[in-house]
Write a structure and sequence with these properties.
Elements (H helix, E strand, L loop, with lengths): L1 H9 L3 E4 L5 E4 L7 E4 L2 H22 L21
Antiparallel strand pairs: 1-2, 2-3
């Protein structure tokens, strides 16, 4: 399920060619994920690594994650029967 989330999030990546002919990439649905590379493929690989780190950090800290393509990695709310 995590792999599906990563693959889905990467579909929303935006890449820009910079003045020095290198590339930057970001995933707006996942704030803070940004990467750079000398080639578009290198940038894509770096962005995937940044997304994995972002995702692991968010899960570790219990941050709410965006639902992407109906994939929801958020823990279900605890039910109280009081």
């Amino acid at each position: 399920m995590i792999r599906d989330y990563i693959d889905s999030a990467l579909k929303y990546a935006i890449y820009d060619k910079l003045d020095d002919n290198s590339f930057s990439g970001e995933i707006p649905k996942c704030p803070g994920t940004i990467a750079f590379g000398e080639t578009l493929e290198e940038c894509r690989q770096e962005l995937e690594a940044a997304l994995q780190d972002w995702l692991l950090s968010a899960l570790r800290h219990g941050d709410e994650l965006p639902v992407i393509d109906s994939i929801d990695l958020n823990a279900p709310a605890e039910v109280s029967y009081e």
